[in-house]
């Protein structure tokens, strides 16, 4: 039928047809999404629990406590846009008070630590998880984060930024003393910068301490999880030893290319006979700092490799050097436990779309 039209008109009609198809699917998907959300409506109460927590009220101050307590969590979690837009204009800014109580009783009662994690399954107990985090400020937020992810069989390490103020460091150490069996502070302190300098060293200081622990933890994470501990366990078990590290081409000027990046030039392996025969030069890749390492990968990094000369050279660049270390090791070294490969780095997985000449 389209043959009766000129090529120009055919292209125009095809374009109109595609637009109508797009609109149809958009409306269909929007309706489906609405019905899906409707079926999953949360059953939280219309307002937050107004029971007074004197410990938390004292920590936040009456003004912030009342602002938080007046939030309608049900509307937020059910994505009520008008309500969300009305409250995001005036964000609630939480700050640490100078007279914050850091005795163990106050810490535990502020966030109801032992009420949050509930009953722990045998599956979780057999699969401990470690957390390593470099910290600088916002103590109360970190205390709250720990209450969300805390489980007695997991282990937690804080690496202090040397630039952090004295009071913040005292509070983190008080938190560690309160949960002395599985929360601790790294022995080393580094001046950590947003450019990435000393981020890897600070993280490694926690990994070294974690690796000496008797707990048989399986994976180490540093980001705030959006899953329950039980869900994390099932996810990490599905990984089956694989690391969760992105692999991307590096951004320009992230690495000083003129330096010697050969494995032997970097003295990367502690054992001279351990160098992989087919890998002479590192092909740098990057990820975010949002990584998850297997215990085997951590042990390999600390015992088989000497990564500090590598870090020294990475830190000769201006920015983003902290995003290169683990991604490069994970994607370049064939013997890196749970590692990936460079094979797919420049290969399109999805079909390319060509619009020209339609």
TrEMBL record:
It is a single-pass type II membrane protein. The chain crosses the membrane at residues 12-28. It comes from the Eukaryota. It is found in: Membrane. InterPro entries: Glyco_trans_14. One of its GO terms (cellular component) is membrane. Keywords: Glycoprotein, Glycosyltransferase, Membrane, Transferase, Transmembrane, Transmembrane helix. The keyword Glycoprotein applies. One of its GO terms (molecular function) is glycosyltransferase activity. This is Uncharacterized protein. It comes from Meloidogyne enterolobii.
